[in-house]
Amino acid sequence: MELLLVVLIGVLYAAGVYLILRRSMVRLLLGIMLLGNGTNILIFLLGNITKGKPPIIGADLKVFADIYADPIPQALILTAIVISFGLTSFAIVLLKRVYALIGSDDLDDLNTPEEEDI
Amino acid sequence: MIDNQIISTVLIHLFTALLQLVFWRKTVTQRILSVSGALTGHIFALILFNKVSGGTILTMNAANWEAPFGIVFVADMLSSTMVLLTSVAALAVSIFSATGVGRARMLYGYFPIFHFLVMGLNGAFLTGDIFNLYVWFEVVIIASFVLLTLGGRKAQLEGAVKYMAMNILASTFFLTGIGLLYGITGTLNMADLSLKIPQVENQSIVNLTAMFFLIGFGIKAAVFPLYFWLPSSYHTPPSAVAATFGGLLTKVGIYALFRVFTLVFVPDEFVKTLFLVMGILTVLTGAFGAVIKNNVRRMFSYLIVCHIGFIIGGLGLYTKVALLGAVFYLIHDMIVKTNLFLIAGLIRQLRGTMNMSKLGGLYAHYPKISLLIAVVLFSLAGIPPLSGFWPKIYLIEAAFFGNHYGFVVTIIIGSFVTLYAIAKLWSEVFWKNASADLVVVDNFKPLKPFKKLLLVLPIGILGAATLYIGLNAEMVIQVADRISTEMLDTRPYIRAVLGK
């Protein structure tokens, strides 16, 4: 399981970096999303995956006697997913507006010559 | 010592923003609420600063979960100073925005978003938990995205794409670092991390993790070679927004670097050299970028980058004197950079443009305002006894006695180029006679006296703060001295948080 996740994280990071290095804005967005997902799985992996061992102390015990699943990484991932959902939806709307304005998906077209600013 | 008043500044800005959402589209009420909220925030920041400068470090456990298990808020000297400076800058920007921001932007929620941004900044300065720091960073960047794009002009949206991409990338790096850190230590509390990091057997993994934080915060702080998004986006939004960004947002990155690289990761020789080289190159690239720009705000954007190099270089030297100088520079920089962008906004109001070749003769028409601006510009260039001068003495002293002559030369070059840029600005905008065939659009003259006051007063407030920092340098040095002592000896911080 761990090995599978490690490979998956590697693939997600590699694909994310590759897409970010492209000139297209949509690919940039997809790349950022893949990187974010890779990070979430990385946190999940680093919390030491344990199956079927909830972090609950038995009624007759005072401390954990056995290995248990760490709940904190899952809380972190949940927070990170919600945040990246918000950021991504904003980014999608922003890129759509930019596309409507300049009619191009190319990041190199984002350089309107100096104009009078507000 | 536990004191729940720590987060009052966060709460005040939160409630101000929420109240403004109730008064949606009522721009006059929103303006009054904004200024009074910022003023209340400033008063509470002063109270907090006074409490902390008495010599204690205050903490607060969220929901009464004891550290290191719950989220802890900590107000040490560095945090409370940053909160105080933020509140001063926020007050000035809030007053300036009352006339400096267009009505259309206010109708679409400029003020609530501005207060959410300031709330996020205060939270980031006060938290003692590294994942909570990430969450506050996200609060700040989502608010800054909205402020940057509000208005929807073409240049704004183009700048926003670059800004958004780089900031989300920075957050991803930061989050990866947090994940790795949790994996190797099993804790997220910064004081607890500080104790557990030296016990990790494989220190090379720790160094690797530190690099993730360096890149993440480096992008936000705009250091070489990660700064390119800054000059291509900061000149696009309204000046009040640019003032918030220029004065406060990059400084959050600097604060995070200071916090993480003094408390959590203590830099080894390699990291110190890296900071120093980055600082030198940041100063040089920023300085030469500023020289070639002809637009007032583009020039100021490069000056931000240039002066961040001084602070990063000071962190790289990592001696008591160097940290003192870097912290003093940070204190000076937050106030002055906010003011610079407000000044750019005022110039735009006076003449309808920010292009230096189209400006001129401001001194003849507005001598009093020009003199006020001159004080700020002199202080930026570091003319004694104004505030930009003192930190450079400490930085040069530290670099000289540490045998880092390259950094000494860089500080001198950076200061000279700043002086040159300021001199160019002064002669082009204020002294030169404007060419006769230019159409002057003066949006300032027809304004009512009260509105004129609202535009000039914040520049005056920040100018007075700059003068205070410069002329009362001894008191600021005491503050910076205590901050740098706390940076080098983190035991009081850890004791305050963990009680051991």
Task: Summarize it.
Chain A is mainly α. Chain A contains three helices and no strands. In chain A, helix 1 (2-20) packs antiparallel against helix 2 and helix 2 (25-46) runs antiparallel to helix 3 (71-102).
Largest interface: A-B, 38 and 46 residues
Q: Which word captures the global form of chain B? A: globular
- Given helix and strand content, the structural type of chain A is mainly alpha
State the order of secondary-structure elements of chain B, H for helix, E for strand. HHEEHHHHHHHHHHHHHHHHHH
- Count up the helices of chain B: 20
Low-pLDDT runs of chain B: none
N/C terminus separation of chain B: 13 Å
What is the distance, rounded to the nearest whole angstrom, between the alpha carbons of the first and last residues of chain A?
55 Å
**Residue-averaged pLDDT of chain B:** 90
Sheet having the most strands of chain A: none
> How many independent structural domains of chain A?
1
Tertiary shape of chain A: elongated
CATH architecture of chain A: Orthogonal Bundle
Question: Average pLDDT across residues of chain A?
Answer: 86
Radius of gyration of chain A over all CA atoms, rounded: 21 Å
**Structural class by sheet pairing and helices of chain B:** mainly alpha
Description:
The complex is a heterodimer of chains A (118) and B (500). Chain A is an all-alpha fold and 118 residues long. Chain A has a single domain, classed as Helix Hairpins (Orthogonal Bundle). Chain A has helices at residues 2-20, 25-46, 71-102. The model of chain A has no long low-confidence stretch (mean pLDDT 86). Chain B has one domain (4-498). Chain B contains 20 helices and 2 strands. Chains A and B meet through helix 2 and helix 3 of A and helix 6 and helix 7 of B.
